[in-house]
């Protein structure tokens, strides 16, 4: 009778490692396994994290499966040319992340998924994935320590000026430079996230009853703000390139539009990026109609060769928002807003002072430290690397003939096969431990257009993301209807 994979027995055929040699042939031959382990040293970042990252990727790809026995630590250290401490630290981190189990004298094995105890797999919340090759916890700890060496802790625990201090605004100018070029730090406001910034701009630029023009599918936060603040949502016609300039002209002249909202790069939810000529056409309209435009651009830094922001084409009319929540971490609660002129900056600053008074001093200080010492760019590059890996994984698992696939970003706008609707798919997914976001959450009219947003960053481990995507693929293949109440995750 065959023994289960990974069991330790004296029979050489059943034991995956005998005298340091691989004998298992069911999934990985000896030479290819050794080559895979050597591939663990590819990439950047601390070596122990490269090993952990390799284990995670190999689990997600099925190259390492539950029950597979890993090389003894000394053997792996010799194979990779590392000291034993590095491999020991890697195995310890992998155990913390529940990738592996240590079974004493029997060895170390790939963990079996604990599905019955696992929380829901979140494919609904749009946050950046863990940065490849970096220990985010260590970076946060080091950032706080560096802040405390140059700032009195008591000063971080008191009230600060609204809009951020001089160093914080200078940090914002650094972050905005690739998008906008040189920006005067005095026109930058540091905010507690993009949602607070959007609220401040709506209050500063419009009055109750005014129209705010936007596309038919938008970030749900702007819909909620417009409704809560009593602004009219004016939905404009779009084509494959986004908002139509002629539709915007008509709305400004006929529907009392007082502000325009756009998310033109890797748009949430559609992942479309507005081409440069369309951006120039929109800029021309806002100049001609003298209407302010709110350019919400959280994904520009994640995109591959994105066009210049609209703010470059109409700098006197555009308020530009760049949050760190989608490309570094939402826990930093930091967004930078560049105003078109001093008067607009003063009005916006007054609105922000009334809403949140000031950005959180400690997290703002860490963001500023990261900008000035280069950590922010390292995290950004790590996030982009992980995001690319996850997009490729999702494409392998979910690809279908009619599905358009983004080349960058942290989410996919996924077209459902019949007979699924977005709502019934979200219910079926929730019933099986998955969270996705249905299309009606993004629609200005609450329409179900047979599309869902699949977010790829919330699952910390790639193996867990793979598990969730494979489960979603199985649900999609089944088809059908499920009658359960479910709240969309935004």
UniProtKB/TrEMBL annotation:
GO molecular function, one term: transaminase activity
Family under the similarity heading: In the C-terminal section; belongs to the class-I pyridoxal-phosphate-dependent aminotransferase family.
Family annotation (InterPro entries): Aminotransferase_I/II_large, HTH_trans_reg/aminotransferase, PyrdxlP-dep_Trfase, PyrdxlP-dep_Trfase_major, PyrdxlP-dep_Trfase_small, Tscrpt_reg_HTH_GntR, WH-like_DNA-bd_sf, WH_DNA-bd_sf
PANTHER family attached to this UniProt entry: HTH-TYPE TRANSCRIPTIONAL REGULATORY PROTEIN GABR
Protein name, as recorded: PLP-dependent aminotransferase family protein
Organism superkingdom: Bacteria
Keyword annotations: Aminotransferase, DNA-binding, Pyridoxal phosphate, Transcription, Transcription regulation, Transferase
């Amino acid at each position: 009778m065959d023994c289960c994979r990974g069991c330790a027995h004296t029979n050489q055929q059943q034991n995956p490692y005998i005298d340091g040699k691989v004998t298992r042939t069911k999934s990985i031959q000896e030479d290819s396994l050794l080559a895979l382990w050597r591939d663990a040293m590819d990439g950047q970042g601390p070596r122990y994290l490269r090993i952990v990252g390799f284990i995670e990727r190999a689990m997600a790809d099925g190259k390492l499966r539950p029950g597979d026995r890993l090389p003894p630590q000394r053997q792996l250290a010799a194979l990779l040319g590392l000291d034993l401490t590095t491999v020991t630290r890697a195995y310890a981190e992998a155990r913390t992340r529940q990738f592996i189990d240590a079974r004493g004298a029997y060895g170390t094995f790939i963990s079996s998924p604990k599905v019955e105890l696992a929380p829901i797999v979140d494919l609904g919340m749009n946050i950046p994935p863990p940065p490849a090759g970096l220990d985010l916890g260590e970076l946060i700890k080091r950032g706080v320590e560096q802040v405390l060496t140059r700032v009195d802790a008591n000063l971080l625990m008191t009230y600060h000026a609204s809009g951020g201090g001089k160093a914080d605004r200078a940090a914002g100018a650094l972050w905005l430079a690739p998008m906008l070029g040189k920006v005067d730090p005095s026109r930058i406001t540091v905010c507690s996230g993009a949602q607070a910034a959007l609220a401040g701009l709506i209050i500063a630029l419009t009055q109750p009853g005014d129209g705010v023009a936007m596309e038919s599918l938008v970030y749900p936060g702007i819909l909620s703000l417009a409704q809560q603040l009593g602004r009219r949502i004016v939905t404009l016609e779009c084509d494959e390139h986004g908002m139509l300039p002629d539709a915007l002209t008509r709305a400004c002249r006929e529907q009392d539009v007082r502000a325009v909202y756009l998310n033109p790069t890797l748009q949430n939810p559609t992942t479309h990026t507005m081409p440069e000529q369309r951006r120039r056409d929109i800029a021309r309209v806002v100049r001609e109609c003298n209407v302010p435009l709110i350019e919400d651009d959280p994904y520009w830094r994640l995109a591959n060769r994105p066009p210049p922001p609209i703010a470059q084409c109409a700098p006197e009319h555009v308020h530009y928002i760049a949050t760190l929540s989608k490309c570094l971490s939402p826990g930093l609660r930091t967004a930078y807003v560049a105003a078109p002129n001093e008067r607009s900056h003063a009005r916006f600053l007054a609105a922000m002072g009334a809403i949140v008074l000031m950005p959180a001093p400690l997290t703002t200080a860490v963001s500023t430290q990261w900008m000035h010492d280069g950590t922010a760019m390292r995290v950004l590059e790590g996030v982009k690397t992980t995001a690319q890996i996850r997009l490729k994984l999702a494409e392998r698992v979910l690809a279908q003939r009619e599905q358009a696939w983004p080349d960058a970003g942290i989410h996919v706008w996924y077209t459902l096969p019949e007979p699924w609707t977005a709502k019934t798919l979200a219910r079926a997914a929730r019933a099986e431990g998955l969270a996705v976001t249905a299309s009606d959450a993004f629609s200005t009219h609450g329409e179900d257009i047979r599309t869902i947003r699949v977010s790829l960053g919330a699952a910390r481990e790639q193996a867990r993301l793979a598990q969730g995507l494979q489960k979603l693929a199985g649900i999609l293949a089944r088809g059908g209807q499920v009658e359960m109440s479910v709240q969309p995750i935004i």
